[in-house]
Amino acid sequence: MRRLGSMILALALVAGLVGAGGALAADAKGGTMHIKFSTWHPPASREVKTVWTPMLEELKKRSNGRITYTLYAGGALGSGPEHYEIVKKGLSDMGYFTATWTPGRFPLADTLSLATWVDGKDVAVKIGNELYEKDPGVHKEFEGVKVLELNGCIQAFIWTKKPVRAMADLKGLKIRSPGGHQTNYIKALGAEPVFMPLGEVYMAMETGTIDGIVTCSPLVLAFKLHEVAKHGVMATFGCVTEGVVMNQKAWDKAPEDLKPIIMEVVGNPFATTHGLNQQSYKEMIAEIKSKGVELYQLPQDEESRWFGKFQEETKKWVADLQAKGLASKETVELYNKIAQQYGAPCAAYPQEWHK
Prior knowledge:
D-Maltodextrin-Binding Protein, domain 2, six-stranded mixed beta sheet, 2 domains, globular, 11 strands, alpha/beta
């Protein structure tokens, strides 16, 4: 009888454990999660209003309220260049970072910031995600976080206080650069690159500390630079390499059935929300013009001179990375192929490399 009682007790314990395990599994599958999302974009910016808030609301909606969030905008958790580490270290669970602002850390990923005609962030993400998936060197640069999307931003133009009509007009001008290739482009055109936080650009232009800036149209509007830079040249400078990453531990702890929802919504947040997409780009350009900014299209021969300088910078940059043992030319060639497939020609791709 004692032996039979022990067996019954053991079976009861096993049944209890199985039941508990089943309950835990159900809880894990039906669990909730709270996402702390960080971005350096100002709270009133087009990015926050038309992309990040709608994206987070869409996560909440598609998960039937199981995903909730807190949005930290405007550098509330740290400056722009710190945002990758903010996520990686877990200060936020998910966030938008700019790789180009940390020189040398993501060398191959900075291929995405080459001068390319990209007029929508939705397209930029398609290009960036494909490069991330297909290029092992780019993929390796983001070990330790969950990459949800990667992009090369919307094409940047040069915005100045005085009209620029040719390369000679740029000689000696001080131009704020976002870093990376754009710094080299500015130098190649005869101007002097200056790096400073975007929040300081307005005052610097107003006081004459700098003469212009290379940036994309959303940031011209977000930081009201159209009030101090009344002239723009519509020649692509590319932009910066950016993306949304998630803290690896936060991703690992997320309920398994919520992960596909996160990937569907955040895998291309601009396509999900329709914010900063190709249609939005046309609207932003029209808005900038309506605020009294003159946009100038370079004549073909002058544009070719500018882009020829950019192509020389690409060759030097590739050679430098090759000397460090990185397969940079292969990455640039793959990027150019992908970009062309999405109707976004790379102006900085050396002509002699075309096959």
